[in-house]
Amino acid sequence: MDEYSRYPQQSEQIIATIFTCRSIVRYNLTLNEPQKNDLLHDIDAALELLRSQLIIRGTTAEKNITAPECRIAAH
Fold it and tell me: Which pTM was predicted?
């Protein structure tokens, strides 16, 4: 299987991770430690997939994409 044929599956994984994070924030859900670790692993994997797709397309994340600022206020 070549790199390009995996894009749909990788994109679905990224979308699923984003929806999971969105649901946790939206519904103020509490996670136990193993769930946190699993979610952090999924987030890291999604970021790595996005980074690799940018590099493959000849674009580096450092030049063209800046991370959004976190706007969560400390309580």
Answer: 0.65
